[in-house]
Write a structure and sequence with these properties.
The chain is mainly beta. The protein has helices spanning about 30-35, 40-50, 120-130, 135-145, 355-375, and strands at about 15-20, 65-70, 75-80, 85-90, 100-105, 105-115, 160-170, 175-185, 190-195, 205, 225-230, 230-235, 245, 250, 260, 265-270, 280-285, 290-300, 305-310, 315, 325-335, 335-340, 380-385. The longest helix has 17 residues, at about 355-375. Mean pLDDT is about 85; it is low at about 1-10 and about 390-393.
Length: about 400
C-alpha cells in the first residue's frame, strides 16, 4: 500500500469501466497513458501492486479493467487477470492510498447479439434496443471510413452485431466488452467487420476476406452528439458575426468527453492557443498535423515532444477560448495547408498475416454464421460462439 499522497476526490456522475486486452509489448504505464493517466500517477499504482504482483510483467491476451470517475476522470481501480483463476485488484482509498489484493476471477463473459432495421438512426434506435452506448461508439470507429454510422444510416438500413457482455460478481449491470462482429447494410450495400486477435494479443477488425477494415487514422476523435459546423472556406462566425473560413470540424459533446488522438504521432503543442483556448497539436506521418481546440483540460502526460498512439486520450471537451458552448474544434493540415478532416481517407492497415489465416478463417466463419442467423428482435439475445476468445478467459 502506498503512503498517503492526496485525498480521493469523487465526482457526482458515477464510474465508468473500460475493458482492455493486453498485447505483446504493452506495459501498464502505456495503457494508462493512453487513457490520460500521467507517469507519476501510473507509478503510484505500480508501487501499490508490487507486494502482491509485479505489474511490470503483464502478459498478452490477459484482461485489464480500468475504472474511472466519470466527472473527474480520476482512476479509481485497476483489475488485472493474473491467470485463469486469479485477479489482482487495486483500489483508490479515501485517504489517498491504494489498496492491493488478490481475488478469484469475479466475472464471466456472455455474448449478446442484435439484428434490427433502422427506423430513425442508430443512436436513437439503440436506446430502444438496449444496445450499450459503448457498442454504438465502437461501431462508429469500426465502420467510420465506410459507413457514416453517426448520421448516415437511413430508415430501412439494417444492423447486425454480436458483442461481449461482462458480468462482475455483485455488479448491478454488465459492462460491454469487444464488438466481436457486425454487419451494416446501407442502401443495399453490406459491410461486415470481424474482430480477430492473434496469439500476441494484437486485435483488429477485418472483412471476411481477411482485408483490414480499419485505417491508420480514426475518422472521429471523440464520441460526439452532432456535427455543428463543417469545414468551410466561408462561414459566418457565431460570436464575431463576420464571414471567414472555418478550417476544421466542430463536434458538439458534453463537457469532459474524452478526446482521442486520431493517429500515432508526436505532440507539437499543448497549452492555450488564442481563440482555440486549450489546444493540443500533434504531428503525424505524411506531413499531417491534427489540432484539437476548446479543451477543458489537456490529459496528464501529453507534453510537447511526447509520443502518442492512435486512440490515446489527449484531452477533454470544453469551451475554452472563443466558444459558445462545449464542443471540440478538430482540424487537420498538411504542410500548413488545412484540409477537410472528414474528407481525408487514411491508409488501410495490413490484412490478416498468412501465418494466422487458418485461425482467422475459423473465427470469421462462425461469427459470420451467427450474424446471419440473428433473428430480428427488440432486445439483445444471448448467443454462443465457440471459436471466439474474449481475451478474458
Amino acid at each position: 500500500m502506498t503512503s498517503p499522497r492526496r485525498s480521493c476526490t469523487r465526482g457526482t456522475r458515477g464510474s465508468a469501466v473500460e475493458h482492455l486486452n493486453v498485447r505483446r509489448g504493452d506495459t501498464l504505464e502505456e495503457l494508462l497513458a493512453a487513457r490520460g493517466i500521467g507517469t507519476i500517477e501510473a507509478r503510484r499504482w505500480l508501487a501499490a501492486a508490487a507486494r502482491v504482483y509485479d505489474l511490470r510483467r503483464i502478459h498478452p491476451r490477459r484482461a485489464v479493467n480500468l475504472t474511472f470517475d466519470r466527472a473527474t476522470h480520476a482512476l479509481e481501480a485497476v483489475r488485472y487477470q493474473i491467470d485463469g483463476r486469479t485477479l489482482l485488484v487495486l483500489e483508490a482509498q479515501d485517504d489517498g492510498t491504494i489498496a492491493a489484493r488478490r481475488e478469484l476471477l469475479p466475472y464471466f463473459v456472455e455474448v449478446k447479439g442484435v439484428a434490427t432495421r433502422i427506423e430513425r438512426g442508430l443512436r436513437e434506435d439503440s436506446l430502444e434496443l438496449g444496445l450499450p452506448a459503448r457498442v454504438v461508439s465502437d461501431l462508429a470507429d469500426i465502420f467510420g471510413w465506410d459507413v457514416d454510422v453517426a448520421s448516415g444510416l437511413h430508415p430501412g438500413d439494417e444492423l447486425r452485431v454480436v458483442y461481449e457482455h461482462i458480468w462482475q460478481t455483485g455488479g448491478a449491470s454488465p459492462e460491454p466488452g469487444n464488438v466481436l462482429g457486425a454487419e451494416i447494410v446501407s442502401r443495399g450495400r453490406a459491410t461486415t467487420a470481424i474482430f480477430f486477435e492473434d496469439v500476441d494479443g494484437n486485435g483488429g477488425y477485418y472483412r471476411p476476406s481477411g482485408d483490414a477494415l480499419s485505417r491508420t487514422f480514426l475518422r472521429y476523435p471523440l464520441d460526439f452528439t452532432e456535427i455543428t459546423s463543417d469545414f468551410s472556406l466561408l462561414r459566418r462566425h457565431p460570436i464575431l458575426h463576420i464571414f471567414r473560413p472555418h478550417l476544421g470540424v466542430d463536434f458538439a459533446a458534453p463537457r469532459g468527453t474524452p478526446v482521442r488522438a486520431v493517429a500515432n504521432g508526436m505532440v507539437r503543442f499543448a497549452g492555450r492557443l488564442r481563440e482555440l483556448g486549450r489546444c493540443v497539436r500533434i504531428d503525424h506521418a505524411g506531413a499531417l498535423t491534427s489540432s484539437y481546440g476548446h479543451l477543458s483540460a489537456v490529459a496528464p502526460g501529453v507534453l510537447v515532444g511526447s509520443v502518442v498512439k492512435r486512440g490515446q486520450v489527449i484531452g477533454y471537451v470544453g469551451a475554452t477560448g472563443l466558444a459558445t458552448g462545449p464542443h471540440l474544434h478538430y482540424a487537420l493540415d498538411r504542410d500548413g495547408e488545412y484540409v477537410d478532416p472528414l474528407a481525408l481517407t487514411g491508409a488501410i492497415e495490413q490484412p490478416v498475416p498468412a501465418s494466422a489465416r487458418r485461425a482467422f478463417d475459423r473465427v470469421q466463419a462462425e461469427v459470420s454464421r451467427e450474424l446471419a442467423a440473428l433473428p430480428a428482435t427488440t432486445r439483445p439475445l444471448t448467443v454462443t460462439l465457440s471459436h471466439v476468445r474474449s481475451g478474458l478467459e
